[in-house]
Amino acid sequence: MSSDAQGIKEQLRQYIVQEFLPGEDPANVGDDLALKSSGVLDSVSTLKLVTYVEDSYGITVEPHEASTDFETIADIAALVERKKK
Predict the structure, then answer these.
(1) Selection from 26, 60, 38 nearest residue 80 by Cα
(2) Could you tell me which residues come within 8 angstroms of residue 2 by beta carbon, excluding any fewer than 6 positions away?
(3) Cystine design at 35: which of 22, 41, 65, 75 (Cβ 3.0–4.6 Å)?
(4) What pLDDT score was predicted for residue 85?
């Protein structure tokens, strides 16, 4: 894994904890935590996260990507890396 990917994951983790899991220890939010099926993200919070990712990384997330690639931090980081190339 590139250091870029690790940095993206850490930035995403911090944002997710701050916005959707206040008070949670970021160390408890793993790269493979199922964000949607565990209830961390609902449709509104997913849209908020999509907007954050688009603004932070200068990419455009297509609607189908928001539904398929926003399940884990690792998935989102991989999407960002693909789109940034």
Answers:
(1) 60
(2) 81
(3) 41
(4) 75
